[in-house]
């Protein structure tokens, strides 16, 4: 069973929305396990403090290394070894490649920061992988952890209905964003479903979807478009080399 341990000051935030819909059903079906752990349970003083003022001065508070380390110890000693991640806006951006990698493993241990963040020494001592969910600042790592877990859990075997849907969608096998979707009614508020989608001609539908995916990617995400055209070029070059050999 894929095992997610979340170290947080707010364990009651989990599984939260992940207790519903696809992820919730997978939780009940024991495809994955969600174990939210209260960092404060590892505080040692009589005030149960988990944070202290920043060395060098400045605003806010910093989470203490000894308390975080003890919480990490307790989580990591349970079950098989799992990668430990710290959710932070200065981490590498979460993308589908990392989601695929994590969901293919045994699970994750996620450290959620609060206040100004976590003492650097425990991040280094534990070799935590720093991951951000976007270039903006949340008030805590819990919402970031929920986003990461949601993305991983839907890729676990048996969670999504059609096996191919993860390949076809945005950030799937190709670097292309997904084509637009339509359903009934065929006419709605003066807008029609593109006639090709009603033609029953599978090859034409596939061609149209591919062209739309390319157009959307080119217009909205030049970075992904460059990666896609680069991939296509190298794939053609490899095919050419193989044919010539
Ligand atoms: C108020 S933030 C601290 C921001 C920090 N002082 C900085 O400037 O990088 C508190 C916590 O929220 C979490 N957090 C905030 N934004 C995030 C993001 N974009 N991705 C992942 N975690 C985030 C981190 O765990 C962070 O320690």
TrEMBL record:
Question: Can you give the residue ranges of the tRNA methyltransferase TRMD/TRM10-type domain?
Answer: 5-226
Q: Binding of S-adenosyl-L-methionine: at which residues?
A: 113, 133-138
Q: What is its EC number?
A: 2.1.1.228
The entry describes its oligomerization and partners as: Homodimer.
Q: What the protein does? A: Specifically methylates guanosine-37 in various tRNAs.
Q: Does the keyword tRNA processing apply?
A: yes
Q: Which domain of life is it from?
A: Bacteria
Q: Which family does it belong to?
A: Belongs to the RNA methyltransferase TrmD family.
Give the location in the cell: Cytoplasm
Keywords from UniProt, A to Z, are: Cytoplasm, Methyltransferase, S-adenosyl-L-methionine, Transferase, tRNA processing
Biological process terms from the Gene Ontology for this record are:
tRNA N1-guanine methylation
- Name of the protein described by the UniProt record: tRNA (guanine-N(1)-)-methyltransferase
Q: What is the lineage of its organism?
A: Bacteria, Pseudomonadati, Pseudomonadota, Alphaproteobacteria, Acetobacterales
Task: Name any one Pfam family assigned in the record.
Answer: tRNA_m1G_MT
Group of enzyme by EC: transferase
Q: Which InterPro entries match?
A: Alpha/beta_knot_MTases, tRNA_m1G_MeTrfase_C_sf, tRNA_m1G_MeTrfase_TrmD, tRNA_m1G_MTases_N, tRNA_MeTrfase_TRMD/TRM10
PANTHER family per UniProt: TRNA (GUANINE-N(1)-)-METHYLTRANSFERASE
């Amino acid at each position: 069973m894929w095992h997610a341990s979340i170290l947080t000051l707010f364990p009651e935030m989990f599984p939260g929305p992940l207790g519903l819909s696809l992820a919730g059903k997978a939780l009940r079906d024991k495809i994955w396990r969600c174990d939210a752990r209260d960092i404060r349970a590892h505080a040692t003083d009589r005030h149960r403090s988990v944070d202290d003022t920043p060395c060098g001065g400045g605003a806010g508070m910093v989470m203490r290394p000894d308390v975080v380390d003890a919480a990490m110890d307790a989580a990591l000693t349970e079950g098989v070894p799992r990668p430990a991640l710290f959710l932070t806006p200065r981490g590498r951006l979460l993308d589908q490649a990392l989601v695929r990698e994590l969901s293919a493993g045994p699970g994750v241990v996620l450290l959620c920061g609060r206040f100004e963040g976590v003492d650097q020494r425990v991040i280094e001592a534990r070799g935590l992988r720093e991951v951000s969910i976007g270039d903006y600042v949340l008030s805590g790592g819990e919402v970031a952890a929920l986003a990461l877990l949601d993305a991983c859990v839907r890729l676990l075997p048996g969670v999504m209905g059609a096996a191919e849907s993860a390949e076809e969608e945005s950030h799937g096998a190709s670097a292309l964003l997904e084509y637009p979707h339509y359903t009934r009614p065929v006419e709605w508020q003066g807008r029609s479903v593109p006639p090709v989608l009603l033609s029953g001609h599978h090859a034409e539908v596939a061609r149209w979807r591919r062209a739309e995916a390319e157009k959307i990617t080119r217009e909205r995400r030049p970075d992904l478009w460059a990666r896609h055209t680069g991939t296509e070029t190298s794939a053609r070059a490899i095919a050419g080399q193989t044919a010539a050999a």
